[in-house]
Amino acid sequence: MQNISQSLAEQLRIGELELSRRKRLLDFDHTDAANLLECLPLIAPRIGELVNDFYLAQTQQPEISLIIGDKDTLSRLHGAMRRYVTELFSGDYDGEYVSSRLKIGQVHHRIGVSPKLYLSGINQLTGLLETCLQELLAEHEERFLRTRRSLQKLMLLDNQLVFDTYIAALQSEIENVNHQLEEYASSLEQTVAQRTQELTDLSNRDPLTGIFNQRAAQKMFEPLKQLADQSLKPICLWYLDVNHFKMINDGMGHSQGDKVLQQLADTIDQTIKQLPKGAQGYASRFGGDEFCVAIFGLGDAQQQAQIQQFFGRLKAIKAVSLSVSLGAAFYSPGHGIEPTLEDLISRADSLMYMAKAVAHGSGDNEVMMDNLPEDTKVQRIPSRA
Ligand SMILES: Nc1nc2c(ncn2[C@@H]2O[C@H](COP(=O)(O)OP(=O)(O)OP(=O)(O)O)[C@@H](O)[C@H]2O)c(=O)[nH]1
């Protein structure tokens, strides 16, 4: 990132010391400065004509006239070039001179003058200056030769400075692009993570009812079991199946049947969401009209209360006469029996089938549950036969 509170020379770290080092490398010293200054009175009257010749030649090149673009810009360039040529013979090549050269590089880069075009212009200017000096110093060959040499060194110093600005501009463009790429990559990462999460969520859900599917239920059982083992609190697994669901489909149509399944799923989900403090669980659809619920943290009586509440809520589904058979199997940790989810499902499923056998034709809901006292609706099935 560019530090805009610093001058160009500061940004490029070209202070007095660096400038003298560069001059020394080019063997440019005070005699060169004196050689050039000595020529100023001679060349000054010729600068206007020289700059005109320079731009006449430059604008012959289509690439350059395209960049210059219009008359006003051309006239501004004439002014800038007259100042530059005057400065070349000013004999004073300090920090201010450096700043002007750096700005020239910056402007050339900004308006799109490529290094090759810049160098072709410099080559043309050097040719014109040398011809002019040769004419002016026709009688003084030795003076012409040393002035030309000094001018060559100074222009090399100028080119170094201009190219430094080109390089710095390219570096900062690369930094900008890198920065943008980094931002893009990180936003892409976030999007991918979000999409992955959305896909994972989606792959865990039953598309019709929005509650968990069988796969997700299987994944979620293990952590629930660990919780039960650590806290020595039970898990109760409900397995539910609608009684005569085929008749609902046949009588009211498949899409109405879908709605009934959705309402039933919502009712089961509500039960999970309204579990008492300390209890938790999940509701899932195992396919067709079969649902599975796992609830952690409730004792026998509290479980029975939850089942009764669930059947109470089920009465709110009024569009259809709906009855459900439910089998509920317990896992009570600390008894040395370590059932898998499949064992528990199989147990709850058999209990559900027993309940269904009682319920069939009655139109009532029926529950078969481990661990509970017998009454008319809740049949007791011994937990470990
Ligand atoms: N509307 C609808 N029906 C479905 C869907 N999936 C399965 N079914 C139907 O659900 C019915 C399930 O029937 P079963 O459970 O075998 O039988 P049932 O009629 O409920 O009878 P019992 O279980 O013996 O009480 C079948 O008719 C399936 O075609 C679904 O996503 N939407």
Automatic annotation (TrEMBL):
Keyword Coiled coil: yes
Catalysed reaction, written as an equation: 2 GTP = 3',3'-c-di-GMP + 2 diphosphate
Gene Ontology MF terms: diguanylate cyclase activity; heme binding; kinase activity; oxygen binding
Keywords per UniProt: Coiled coil, Kinase, Transferase
EC numbers on record: 2.7.7.65
Coiled-coil segments: 167-205
UniProt keyword Transferase, yes or no: yes
Domain called GGDEF: residue spans: 233-372
Protein name (record): Diguanylate cyclase DosC
Provenance organism: Paraferrimonas sedimenticola
